[in-house]
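Weekly puzzle thread! Below is a chain. First person to post its structure in token form gets bragging rights.
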Amino acid sequence: MQSDSDERGKFAAGVVFGLLIGASLGVLFAPKPGVETRKIVKKKAREYFDKGKNIIEDKKVEVKESVKRAVDKALK
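Winning reply:
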């Protein structure tokens, strides 16, 4: 059985992956010139990279807290 945090992590990864795919398809089929499209792709890639980085940092904090609680519980 998987824990809730595993499920949330998979869900978050799926959301990020879906956003990347959706944004990529949207940009590829948009009626804009190449230079403008590349600027949009670069901007969106940076935004999604930053969002992904924030998700990873949040998960690190969550894991550290879980480990600390487990250690505290084990030492009692």
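Puzzle host: Confirmed. Bonus trivia for everyone else. Helices lie at 4-28, 34-75.
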